[in-house]
Specification:
Elements lengths: L11 E7 L12 H8 L3 E7 L12 E2 L9 E2 L1 H11 L8 E10 L2 H8 L3 E5 L8 H6 L3 E4 L9 H12 L9 H6 L17 E2 L2 E2 L9 H19 L1 H11 L2
Parallel strand pairs: 1-2, 1-6, 5-6, 5-7
Antiparallel strand pairs: 3-4, 8-9
Bound molecules: S-adenosyl-L-homocysteine.
S-adenosyl-L-homocysteine binds next to β5.
Length: 243
């Protein structure tokens, strides 16, 4: 029930398919994300993939076809879980956490925050049978070039990054616009009290009260840091700087 004149944005819905539903909400139950969850700005259901196993032992994995180490999550069990969590007509994107996926970036995070929600699948073992990725059109997403033991932490990373951008979650919207990656640059250095820390004063310009000078200084610092640490970001934004 929403009061007239105050249009409520619909709840952003997250469903996570996992073998460890007890790990959720975990860190997402604290701080900004936890408060937003309690306020109903977003919802989270953790669904146990094992509940969709067909046999008495509730088997979800089997040996890799062709041999090799480890186990592989079965396509049929995972497909049943996906179909139950996301029936026909559910327009939410379906993401599979995977080191083979497209690396997550702030642009994808923002796009997800502007949609209706997400279905996230946390892999385990050596990964999932390729056929369920094709048949359910899963978008593979990676959180970095390293290998985790399971997709739950990766799913939490995706959710944390998205939820903080939902309307009403962050107190100060301006802080989302200035922070790292918002403009393809890393953020400028930040300072607060005390004015002198172990002989290191706050840069004089920040105490000048000259807002144009401060803005210029921050811009220069952001560009210097980005060039030194992440030259790849600068070459990627080369295009839209000429616009
Ligand atoms: N054998 C696989 C790794 C499996 S790790 C390979 O070499 O590609 C087990 C699960 O952890 C994966 O199915 C995935 O869901 C999750 N995972 C591991 N690393 C990840 C990463 N960098 N980003 C996102 N998910 C990851």
């Amino acid at each position: 029930m929403s009061s007239p004149g105050a249009p409520q944005s619909p709840v952003w819905r997250a469903s996570v398919l996992t073998l460890f539903p007890e790990l959720f909400p975990g860190p997402l139950g604290a701080s900004l994300a936890g408060k937003a969850l309690a306020e109903g700005i977003w919802s989270l259901e953790a669904i146990d993939i094992r509940a969709f196993a067909a046999d008495r032992h509730r088997t979800v994995d089997d040996n890799p076809a062709g041999g090799g180490p480890g186990m592989v999550m079965r396509a049929d069990v995972l497909a049943r879980a996906i179909d139950a969590a996301s029936p026909l007509g559910d327009s939410r994107p379906r993401l599979l956490t995977s080191p083979r996926g497209r690396p997550l970036d702030q642009a994808r995070v923002r796009a997800l925050s502007e949609g209706p929600g997400i279905l996230l699948i946390a892999g385990r073992f050596e990964g999932v049978d390729e056929r369920v990725i094709e048949a359910r059109r899963l978008e593979e997403v990676s959180i970095g070039d390293y290998v985790l033991s399971g997709g739950e932490l990766a799913a939490m990373v995706v959710l944390d990054a998205v939820v903080r951008l939902l309307p009403g979650v962050m107190g100060n919207i301006a802080s989302a616009e200035a922070e790292s990656f918002a403009e393809g640059l890393l953020e400028y250095p930040q300072y607060t009290r005390p004015q002198v820390f172990e002989d290191r004063p706050i840069p004089e310009v920040l105490l000048s009260g000259d807002h144009a000078r401060i803005a210029r200084w921050r811009r220069e610092q952001a560009e210097r840091l980005t060039a030194a640490r992440r030259p790849d970001l600068l070459s990627r934004r080369g295009g839209h700087e000429q616009e």
